[in-house]
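Input chain follows. Return structure tokens only.
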Amino acid sequence: MGLVDGSGMPAVILIISLMGFGALCRESSLGLVFSLVQLTTMWALPGQIAFIELFTAGNSIFAITLAVAMANARFMPMTATLMTYLRPGTKQTLLLYLFSHFLSFSAWVWVLRRCPQIQPELRFPYYLGFVTVTFTAGVIGLLVGYLLVDVLPGTISQSLVFVNTLYFVLMLADIRGLATVLAVLAGAIAGPLIHMGTNNWGLLLCGLLGGSFAFIIAKILRKSEKDIV
């Protein structure tokens, strides 16, 4: 089941997005082997983009590490919440640590959705199937984007990386949780405004302020509903 779910829209989105990343690597004069190693060892598109931009600009290792860590900080709570669901599916804790590396946003959302419908002992095999397909799709996307970068104009090929971001937004909006919907709306409104004020801190401030706003408003609305009841 994981192979089937992963080979659908998640794989398609990753192929398209990583085509853009492959084109970015080629335009940044990075070797194909280097690009593949970077993809395999990091496997998180926002952090990968931050790494490429800072690395090619000649920044220090400390600055690159800090930027990548901040861009990928979301994986800590994502991994913690997901692995509790997967633990009954395997007695080998080492496998959980190993394959948690291949966790992506789409895998996190899909597996969490499927967990209530899957027997506990089958959740980890489902996850393995899903991440195997999506990771393979990512590698294929990078190879295609890197090798065929001359076929498409640079602005078009590199802009494909934003397809993944759009997919994130649609996935979050489809969850229909009050805080989630508010966070998407707040980010959509605040993002461009904050970015005009500060390019360097726009994304971080948008996430911090938009997420905090959504959390507070959702909490107030829930409390008011309880008071009315």
